[in-house]
Fold each of these.
Amino acid sequence: MNLEGKVSIVTGGAQGIGKAICESLAALGGAVIVSDMNLEGAKTTASELTAKGYRAMACQVDVSDAKSVKVMVDAALSEYGKIDHLINNAGITRDALLLRMKDAEWDAVLSVNLKGVFNCMKAVLRSMSKQRSGRIVNISSIVGAIGNAGQANYAASKAAVVGLTKTVAREYAGRGITVNAVAPGFIETAMTAALPDSVQKTLKEQIPMARLGMPSDIADTVAFLVSNRANYITGQVLHVNGGMYMSG
Ligand code: NAP
């Protein structure tokens, strides 16, 4: 797999899975726009990559804000002249059981995890359509497929991302653009580090491979999907979860 000459935007690239995706795409020769709400974190990721001789720049973005997304896309186009790949990875949780879930918690999760994906796809699709090529990978979640008590907002947003992915895949297949989703299981990041040890232990008992995934497990799948090895794959959801959920 070789991404030389390719340009990727990765949202939520400052840490966790997004940072691993940035590292993976840059190591394959691509230029990476590390975009995040957390500008300092994005700068750190970008400078770690450039220190290794890779091509990267940092950009601050709030994916839930279409104006902020436009600024990110314009910055990428003015620096590199094109966008080949968009990886919609930025995501948040605001957990509570349904009866206790506040409207603000519902709205915040939907506006980042779902509206954010809509905003970013809308902002890159014009230039991808013109160049008649592009790859979009949306990060969903196992929770969107099987549900999870305490995460009604998150599960709804991640399931909706799958419907959005399949629809945009159909709309833009004729333009040479593929749109796929990756649904991680439970991965070792800040998001899961917050879970108590007892919950982590119970989770591992439900995973046939008996371990949480690593961010690189997801990054490798994303790298495959944007590469030439995945030319004929669109509208799919790749589940990467150690066997915790086996989709039909
Ligand atoms: P993470 O460690 O919390 O990192 C998410 C990054 O996104 C953070 O740097 C965060 O910045 C940034 N972000 C939050 N809101 C944003 C916004 N509005 N605009 C731009 N950036 C924003 O999360 P992760 O565990 O790596 O997860 C990455 C993705 O994988 C998410 O979509 C998540 O839902 C999905 N996922 C994760 C797991 C898992 O087990 N970890 C499993 C399934 C799916 P701040 O720190 O400033 O908020």
Amino acid sequence: MRKVFLLPLVLLMSTTVGFAQSAVTAVWVENRENPLGVVSAQPRFSWRLQSDKRNTVQTAYEINLKEGSATAWSTGKVNSNQSVHVVYNGKPLESGKKYTWQVRAWDNSGKPSAWSKPAFFTMGLLNEADWKASWITPGFTEDENRPSPLFRKEFETKRKLRSAIAYVTSHGMYEAFINGKRIGDAYLTPGWTSYHNRLQYQVYDLTNQLASGRNTIGVQLGSGWYRGNIGFSGQYNVYGKDIALLFQLEIEYSDGTKELVISDGSWKTSTGEIQYAEIYHGETIDHRKEKAGWLNPGYNDSEWSSAQVAGFPKNTLISTINEPVRKQETFKPVKIFTTPAGEKVIDFGQNLVGWVVMRFNGKAGDSIFITHAEVLDKQGNFYIDNLRSAKCRNIFVLRGGQQEVFEPHFTWQGFRYARIEGIKGELLPENFEAVALYSDMEPTGTFTSSNPLINQLQHNIQWGQRGNFLDVPTDCPQRDERLGWTGDAQAFSRTASFNMNVNSFFAKWLRDVEADQVEGKVPFVVPNVLGKNEVNSAGWADVATIAPWNMYLAYGDKRLLETQYNSMKEFVESMRKIAKNDLWNTGFHFGDWLFYRPGDDNDGRAAVTDKYLIAQCFYAHSTELLVNAAKVLGKTEDAASYSDLLKRIRTAFVNEYLTPSGRLVSSTQTAYVLALQFDMFPEQLREQAAKRLADNIESYDYHLTTGFLGTPYLCHVLTRYGYSDIAYRLLLQDSYPSWLYPVKMGATTIWERWDGIRPDSTFQTPGMNSFNHYAYGAIGDWMYRSMVGLDTEEDGPGYRHIRVKPHIGEGFTHASASLKTYYGTVSGGWKKENDELQMTVEIPANTTAKIYIPAANAESVTESGKALSAIAGIKINGGEKGYVVIETGSGKYNFIVKK
Ligand code: BGC
């Protein structure tokens, strides 16, 4: 079970026992620890050098890489400070092979670290021809409920094993077993991609799970995204109607001989206990229908039908590069009660995404229905109208006899409450447990402050991310939607990169963005299940440029940028083609989705922003990010020509949407926020525009009125133009519309709408009212990056060159945050005490930092009790409006500023 750690400031300030000598304490290949199934011909190696000596940098490294006992790559000592994303440059890596490697690094004391602990990776299947297995489908006619098909195969191992590696994928979802034991701990496999173009397979090391002698492989499938109901228009079979399995086990004996066990016509198929499984609607499991013993050798499958071999393509198969969905936190019931309507309901205390595990002892044939909901209504009744057509109901049918355990396999639910039907008498807490499932990304960020409501907001942001990062970044996890909405994903991508390491998560999904682009145009949702015309809504489509750039900043991942470059460029080109005289003012756009509009709007207070004004802003922004990417990648011609285009886009904006005195045609917060954020105003008109924004906020009595597109940038723009005080007022506002209003209403996740539950406890329209939608959680980025002030400089992305610049405001006595980067932990925090300001900063080895200390002059600042000027390694770099700016290297710093 994983816990969310909120680091108190004291902890940040204490020094930990550490590494007098530099040590390599973590290593990655392609951003993962010991990955199986790497397919890059030139994988990248990263390591973390740790030291508690200040100003430690790496001066050289050495990598040794072996296949068995043969060296495949030995770099010798390389004089370089690079420790992240070092590109492989050894002998060609071979399909299916396992490689072990170690690294050591020299620091500026001239001494090498010890060699890192041996790490490994395996290569995936590099060529289509490496797949010897055949696609197989059930050998019987499925009934209309489409019960989960079972596939089984017995085989024998003949000698002592050296290794056994399985490669598995399916049309639909699969769960595989070897001799009765589940293979791996990944769920909802093979995950979701643009299946027509890309289908992931997973790799499992079964070396320690095979028995000598007889073995049985068992696999069950569910319809999943492939052919289940997906999309809100009731679509089924989006990718095809056939459910199918592809399974290849490569066995190597210790005498060097090899054997393959592959899916083919010799496999047997039947159905079992899973009678029905749909992502939106839930799963029906009837224990009486279990084929007892089918997972073990010796089971009599003579009544089963032989699998059918199918000719489905294999040229779309890709290895999995992101972390799989795994089981995470578990929750016990916090309350069991009967609602006024007489229903028995369990409260798990947290709106989460996953499912309920039930342990129960009852009579054969008894059915227990578990329905899921996020909220109770005003009267305290179970509320499911906002799930729309999704049934979100699991049905468990008992075998009878001893205690039975039930949990679904091919569905999930977004819920805090579960309604239990079919149990007479009292519900016992020990019979029910909720388990959260999400992509197993490393938690990297913590944020905490002196304000408990803001800490709850951070909690809600993180749970919004957990609930909606299930292999694909989804809008929501509960109703008949759960789609990869591109606008939501771009809005939240930077915040996401603080809370967890989302490098590989986005690297994978962005490949699907490109795969589903239609002549460069980016779909509303990816994978696209809505149709080829549902594309290029401003602020949604821009995920194609925004997310790659954010990943480049957060992780320094230049290859991701390179891989996405074409997608970025094609998207910008698609807008250029649509635009007339550099104005993008046609087509459908969602606009500033879910902006503030009062019910009775006689006074014209609804914050409607012209959709084409928004489109022009994002057109400029995406073009600018393309220019940035072109510069990083050395594409000078593109950089120059798109810089020209960018100028023209801005001029067109000025001509169309701005009055000579600097007023925008839409006088909304979002209009000013976007135009300021993306530098659409001529320089001389920016300050007055920022003032208009500030005045507008004041006129709403310090409430925001922004929707999905304005919200992520609102506080950043205020801070940039010197209105941090207003940003703080917005953050601390707790009446509708505001970030804290839902918190005060008891939210444990971020809501889709500012008023999902209205002040009078009634609900917003059930047609669009999710209580787990991360988009508005984008404020997290400002909390980390401006409030505490942890940021990366663009010239040293991935926090190689760090900027710590807190903006301290009213209403808090302290705030602190930490971020685990590839280099190590970056942290910062401030605390106001009496007449002093304490500021702590931690900078990892092999990075440098520019630290902005809020002080009038260097003389008023001490570090660990000494004058700043007396500290070796700290370079005082003058000042900047209210800050003393210093440059320094790694280490932990405790600054005190006297007023
Ligand atoms: C989704 C949003 C999405 C929007 C498009 C909704 O149904 O839940 O989050 O971005 O449609 O405006």
